[in-house]
Amino acid sequence: MHKDNLLEFFEEVTSQLTLAPNEVRRLFHGRGKRWPGLEQLTCDWVNNQLLVNVFKEVDESFINALTDGLEQIVNSELWQAKAGQCVAIQHRYLDGAPMSVVWGELDTRPVVMESGCKYQLDIGRNQNFGLFLDMRLGRDWVKANAEGKRVLNLFAYTCGFSVAAMEGGATQVVNVDMARSSLNKGRENHRANGHDLSNVTFLGYDIFKSWGKIKKCGPYELVIIDPPSFQKGSFALTKDYKKILRRLPELMTESGEVIACVNSPVVTPDFLIDGMKEEAPGLQFVERLDNPPEFADIDPDASLKVLLFRTTN
C-alpha cells in the first residue's frame, strides 16, 4: 500500500460516516479490492469510535499520512455532528495485533447495536472484537425466520446468530463451540438483550467428538454452520466441512432449513452446493443470501458465502 492512495480512503470514510446509522458498521472495506492500493485497510464505526485496521506491514510515511488524515476527520464538523469519541489504529500484521490511539480515549468494552440487537464487544485484546460485521444480513435473516424453531448454532463463537434467533422468537438455541471463553461472551450477549437463558444452551465441545450430545438436544428446525476457514488442530475447510454436512439428516426435523457459511476466497458457492448434494441430498439449495453492500467485492465468489438449504418433501 502507498500513502498516495489514502485520499480515496478518507473520501470514502467521510462519505460513509455521513450516512452511517447509530449502529456498528463497516465504513471502508479495502479487502474487497475495489480500491487498488488499499487492499489491506478497513475502517469500522463502533459506538462513536473509528477503528482502522491495517493488515499488512507498511512504512512509517504511510502510518504518518494515515494518522494526519484521521486527525483532519476529528477536526471536522462531521465528527462533531457524529459525537465522535475516539480514533484508533490496529496493527494486525504485528504479534498481538496492538492498537494505537490517535485521538480520544478508547472504550474497549462497548455494547453496540445491530438491527435492534445488543452485542458486547472486546476491542484490542484479540484480532477480532467479537462480531463479524459482514454477517449482518445473515443474522437479520435468522431473526426474521426463527420464530417457533429449535435452532442449532455450530461454531457459535460469541453467539451472534443465537442472539438474533432468540430475538426472532426461537423456542430454543443450542450453541456449540470448543472455545468456552467465546461462549461465555455469548452469555453476556444474551444477558444484554434480556433473554431467558433457560432457553439457550452452551456446549463447549469439539463438534466432531460430540455428535451424540448435539443430537440429544434436537431435532432442529434450523441449523447454522459458520466455521472458521482454518483452525489449527480442529478444523480444515476442505477436509472437515463435508463431515458436518453428512450429519445433518440425523440432526434435523423432516421440514428444516440450513444456513451454511464459508468465508474463504479459495472456494466458490459450488463448494457448499456440491458438497450438500453429495453428503445430504435431501437438502436442496434455495438461495445465496446477500452480503451487506458495504462489503462489496470485485469477485463475489471470493467474499463471504451464506447459502440457504431446505429439506425436500
TrEMBL record:
Keyword S-adenosyl-L-methionine assigned: yes
Coiled coil: none
Entry's Gene Ontology BP terms: methylation; rRNA processing
Keyword S-adenosyl-L-methionine carried by entry: yes
Stored CDD domains: AdoMet_MTases
InterPro entries: SAM-dep_methyl-trfase, SAM-dependent_MTases_sf
GO molecular function: methyltransferase activity
Domain annotation S-adenosylmethionine-dependent methyltransferase: ranges: 25-310
Keywords: Methyltransferase, rRNA processing, S-adenosyl-L-methionine, Transferase
Protein's recorded name: Class I SAM-dependent methyltransferase
Organism: Vibrio qingdaonensis
Upper classification of the organism: Bacteria, Pseudomonadati, Pseudomonadota, Gammaproteobacteria, Vibrionales
